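Hi all, long-time lurker, first post. I run a small reading group and we've been trying to get comfortable going from sequence to structure in the token notation. Rather than ask abstract questions, I figured I'd post a concrete chain and ask someone more experienced to write out its structure so we can walk through it together at our next meeting. Sequence below, copied exactly:
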Amino acid sequence: MNQGKVIQVIGPVVDIRFPENHRTADGKTASKRTVHGIHSRRPETGSDSDRRNQRYHRMEAGMRTQFTTPKKYADIFLSLVDEVDCIESFTWKDLRIARKSKFIKFEILDSFSMGEVAFYNNQKEYIPYTTSTTLLNDEKDLIPDHMSYMNSSYFDEVYFARTAYQYAHGMQTFEWTHPPLGKIIQAIPIFLFHTFNPFLYRFMGTFAGILMLLILYIFGALLFKKRGYAILSSFLMAIDTFHYAHTRMGTVDSHLVLFIMISSLFMLLYLQKNKNYYLLLSGIFFGLSVSVKWTGFYAGLGLAIVYFYDFIKNKKDLLESIVKGSVFFVVIPLIIYTSCFLLFPNNYYHTDSLNSVVKEQKIMYEYHSSMNLDHPFSSAWYTWPISYKPVWYHQTDLMNDSEESISGVGNFILWIGGIFGFFYCIYRIFKKDKNAFFLVVMMLSLWLPYIFIGRVMFLYHYFPVLPFLFLGTVLSLKYLTEEYHSKLIIPVYLFLGLLFFILYFPVISGHPVTYKYADWLKIFYSWYF
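-- Answer (accepted) --
Happy to help. Here is the structure in token form:
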């Protein structure tokens, strides 16, 4: 996000007046406005020829207005000519007004900060204006020629990036429905560099996505004992389209999945080497995962199963096992979790005491347990293994029947291969393969609990399953290669997976692409690009 001065607007009205010789066009060619951003998007209906016009809900509005909040943003609640409501933070907006006017009146519904406002006619010529403050139009060079994900927040960044900014500046936080740790981690670059832009609030999530590849390599080396299979494990995640799309966003799921992977890795090391410090580290990273999102608890279910299976199989001391399990996976994670609220108390409640922390958990639970609203990109848990309904994170219409689009679609080749890998792991369990048992337990514990979840769910809830799914795929490929002495199976599989990644790269990266090409990529009707 470009940096710039802001004006704090507090009051009912802000008037902006234009010179007599700079009036807006008659509106015949600008009868509608488009609100850019995922939250105004709805799936199109009807024929492909209607696609462009039906891509968004459109509302009558007016003169083209661009505004943003580059620095020290608190909130936007804006009503423009009684027609426009905008609540997305750190986002450039493009509005069109179909009427002649000498002035624009902003009705302020609450206090907020706004960085820059510019007006253009239908020929995209800048219209000078005067207002009560010069801070609204003193940095025209900051206004981008094209509003996109490169200079604006999108999808859930409007919550998480905003809250990371607030943590970095000691402000009251906006997003309180998840524990603080993920947003605190997201805030680190913002705090260190004393500035705010998309690169910084997306950096930690992207870095976590890169670390996942390293952790998966180590996983593969421990499970398969050969460098080639370790590299293969990491490479499968590297070419997964969902992993690429989701870890580039400024949200907290990357941290959640990374901590689950590390916790599981240390548990595997404990099972192999029986060293207590590995168990301690597993418990610490389990606590970190829960402190990002409550779904980290599902990983704890799988870790508990393999831990007590190891206790039964190796006839370990009962009291010692219970004490270690309780301290490492209950007491220490509870301390980590509670400390996040106490050390960073600017949440829904001011969590500076244990009582207020408990109250915070109650309001969080009430939110998630009552979240039953329909969403155009929600999906059922049993559809996730084939990526049947991805979340459409971002879309912006461009010229010449093209767009930029970011969709969280899985690599269909790899995910289908993962299904076969899963069933092969189940088969290997009956052959007393403890590695297969470990992988199946982790996959099911991170997936099946969603059967009992009543709230709206999305494909990204399947994200923590993917590392173990890819490891299961490698296990099955290892068997096929060694059993049939074939050197073609793995190269062919990787070629098809890489080809899918290349073909779908434009619609997972926001690279400009034509509508025709995006439609051609659809495997299911429920895929939106």
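A couple of things your group might point at:
The first strand starts at residue 7 and ends at 9.
The first helix runs from residue 51 to 54.
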